[in-house]
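so ive been stuck on this for like two days lol. basically i have the seq below and the ligand is adenosine-5'-triphosphate, smiles is in there too. i just want the complex predicted, nothing fancy, no docking runs or whatever. if the output looks off dont worry ill sanity check it later, just need somthing to start from for the group meeting slides
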Amino acid sequence: MPGSMIHAEGLTKQFGTLTAVDQVSLDLAEGEVFGFLGPNGAGKTTTVRMLTSLISKTSGVAVVADCEIGKEADELKLRARIGLLPENVGLYENSTAYENLEYFGQLYGLDGATLRRNIERLLRTMDLWEKKDVPVATFSKGMKQKVAIARALVHDPILVFLDEPTANLDPEAAKMVREILLALKKEKRTIFLNTHNLDEAQRICDRVGILRTRLLTVGSPRELETRMSGNRTVVKLERASEAIAGAVEAQIGSGRVEVSGDQLLVDVDDPDRQNPVIAAAIVAAGGRIRQLTQLSTSLEEVYLKLIHEEALPS
Ligand SMILES: Nc1ncnc2c1ncn2[C@@H]1O[C@H](COP(=O)(O)OP(=O)(O)OP(=O)(O)O)[C@@H](O)[C@H]1O
Ligand SMILES: [Mg+2]
């Protein structure tokens, strides 16, 4: 499929009698930032390890960056195209930050000049250039994490898997990592992000999937919130009236508007499309808008509800 970076169908992993990942089907387009959410033990890391060909799948199909997972002939091509920040970072502790990146880059067969340029750019971005010649054994957790992120990117992969990249980072470093991810997105690279940080997912992901062995749902953060709660627009007016409510209903359907004090509460399906219509109708009816806000379920509420109930109307 053109423009497809990941296509998985019925991807399943069993460890003995334990089904860690059950029938996951998923498509990622080129340039997408995808957030993979789910409780501890949900199978996120296992899924990433299958998609990066670190462990074999039990069944199902996965095509990643045009390489078929499990097909030996595609293995090298896959390695060159994808980068991985694993859950357990695993650097060469006695080597310096620079050497760690150099070693990896050489494995990918980068030429010397490109490699040096990439290493310098990445270490500078990570604020580690000054420490490039220090053994990573002396680094803090967060600094090691940054070296590992740089390592995942050193060969300019088009698809990057990051398993909880900001888990050990201070708020400023976490923000820096998010900015790096958004910069990668701008370069049309595709990002698969395992995270427990819902706020992070909401801020940088185009779509998120919620996994609990099975994939419970996939959608943009906004879609999931809306799907879960229905959506309400609250318009605070200088003075609300039945006449103004009627004017709004005439535009977006009867039975959707409620007057409450100086507010109109409006049921909407598609706030991005309907809110401007609502605002225009109010103004045309002589209403004066003080505030227009969206009431919706937060991604956190959606997440908690889903992983406890599993049932989401689609
Ligand atoms: N090598 C293995 N052998 C046996 N069981 C495994 C192995 N790897 C993972 N599991 C099991 O598979 C399930 C999924 O684990 P996984 O690490 O994929 O979860 P996760 O979603 O990444 O969790 P976390 O958020 O804690 O990182 C767990 O029950 C785990 O114990
Ligand atoms: Mg994990």
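The domain at 4-220 is CATH 3.40.50.300 (Rossmann fold). The chain has a mean pLDDT of 91.
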